[in-house]
């Protein structure tokens, strides 16, 4: 599958993979890669880097919003092959190592198989490596507070709930928020579009995910780049409020 690439601001691209997005932040030919899709998205990840004038060798770091298989599919490949450091929130580091796995179970998916879109999504997830064992061998916690010294200067924002260490990234100068799965604009198992939380079965801690909408409301920005769904243009604060209303 060829990745669908959208430039949303200078040096910022949202890439739609197979049901999951990743983000490329460029600075010259160097990039920061935020998430890496499913294991089956690897060729699309590499092609997307080439399409923005970069290469896997030029990836300064992989940043992980959270360590579900559809977001870390090529993280270990880049780390092992090119020596790329992989960073996550300290609470997500053991999850990325697969000291444990907090991901929707096959049993939970089967319980929800009657819901529209769940079966096609599940078939795609299985074919794309959604249940593969893809630990990151040496994930690293963020080195400090505030903006990271990486292309794009992203600022990590802890938004737990979907997973314990789920993290968004704020690019304040561009008015961009990379929201991972803490705030999305669509999903194959959702019957609505626009700002929303993922369906309940995907969250480790739904009350925590709802509480983390407070963090999104506090971020200045008018471009939301979610882990699933299209780019959302408009106040990020209002997007978080709308997601809260929909979840009520």
Overall, the morphology is globular
**Oligomeric grouping of the chains:** single chain
Major β-sheet profile: 7 strands, mixed
Continuous helix count: 7
Poorly predicted runs: none
Rg from Cα: 16 Å
The main sheet orders its strands as 1-2-3-4-5-6-7
Count of distinct strands: 12
Could you explain the architecture of this structure?
This protein has helices spanning 42-51, 75-82, 93-97, 106-111, 118-127, 206-217, 236-247, and strands spanning 4-9, 12-16, 21-27, 30-34, 59-63, 86-88, 140-141, 155-158, 167-171, 176-180, 223-226, 232-233. It is α/β, with parallel strands linked by helices. The radius of gyration is 16 Å and the shape is globular. The model has no long low-confidence stretch (mean pLDDT 95). It comes from Streptomyces phaeochromogenes.
Task: Give a brief outline of the structure.
By secondary structure, the chain is α/β, with parallel strands linked by helices. The chain is built from 7 helices and 12 strands. Strand 9 and strand 10 form a beta hairpin.
Key terms:
248 residues; alpha/beta; seven-stranded mixed β-sheet; five-stranded mixed β-sheet; 7 helices; 21% strand; NDM-1-like
Helix/strand layout:
Blueprint: E1 4-9, E2 12-16, E3 21-27, E4 30-34, H1 42-51, E5 59-63, H2 75-82, E6 86-88, H3 93-97, H4 106-111, H5 118-127, E7 140-141, E8 155-158, E9 167-171, E10 176-180, H6 206-217, E11 223-226, E12 232-233, H7 236-247
Parallel strand pairs: 4-5, 5-6, 6-7, 10-11
Antiparallel strand pairs: 1-2, 2-3, 3-4, 8-9, 9-10, 11-12
Helix pairs in contact: 6-7
